[in-house]
Amino acid sequence: MESKNPVFSRSRPNMGWAPPAPTPDQLQHMYDSPSYAPPVRPAYRAMTIDDVVVRGFITLGTLVLTAAVSWYLKVPGTFAVGAALVALVLGLVASFKQSTNPALILAYAAFEGVFLGVVSRTFDYVFNGVVLQAVLGTALAFGAVLAVYALRVVRVTPKLVRYVVAAGFAALGLVLVNLIVGIFVDGGLGLRTDSPIGWIFSVAMILIGCFFLLLDFDAIEQGVRQGAPEKFAWQCAFGLTLSLVWIYLEVLRFVSYFTSSD
After folding, report:
1. What single-letter DSSP state applies at residue 227?
2. What does the pLDDT look like over 146-187, one tens digit per residue?
3. What CA–CA distances, in Å, run from 216 to 125, 193, 260?
4. How far is CA 118 from CA 4, 67, 72, 79, 80, in A?
5. What is the DSSP letter of 15?
6. Packing angle between helix 102-126 and helix 77-96, nearest 10 degrees?
7. Strand, coil or helix: what is 166?
8. DSSP state of 146
9. Beta-carbon neighbour count of residue 251 at 10 Å?
């Protein structure tokens, strides 16, 4: 999502006041001061690509580990729903506060991993082999988006950011409406059914997730270029994890439409 993080602020707002006029002594001191002063180094170490890679591996590693444990221990569905709600709350806090707190981000990854482990095990039980296909599909999507971004096939502009964010909110709104309608009508609007409408919607959701991944790559590049603090790498790792989870769940659902159940 488009961020208003102070790291990337380019200008200061006009606060409506001006400093007092300098005294003659102050003017003389300014006149006597040397015309050159060495540049002031920032009090923090700037973020690098390596920082993002390391923290990304830590965050995704936490998610994969807890998902594997959840799968192996056969965590019940009710517990997984609770973990999903906790992950949702933690994710919203980390997103809206632009948090760089590693404890918060890793806690999100852990609870999200528990949920993904249960969902993946359920899908794999019904559609044998679908999880491996979804993992490979997600990895392929990650590599393809990275190549598209590196080759500048698609350039991230403020207009594109607005379109992607709007599409994301619209898609989530449709999912919510479909869920509510599904209470009264079997299948709801058909967005999550094995039908042409369901296939098209799943493809659209995968593409939206890929575009969010494109925005994540741009945020990382801009952060490195503008000298963002090292700790901002945690927020970048969190954004990548969110996008990959989105893509994985949508690929998992889409592949299941074309995989015969046991």
Report:
1. T
2. 999 999 898 899 999 999 999 999 999 999 999 999 888 888
3. 33, 30, 35
4. 35, 7, 9, 9, 6
5. -
6. 140
7. helix
8. H
9. 24
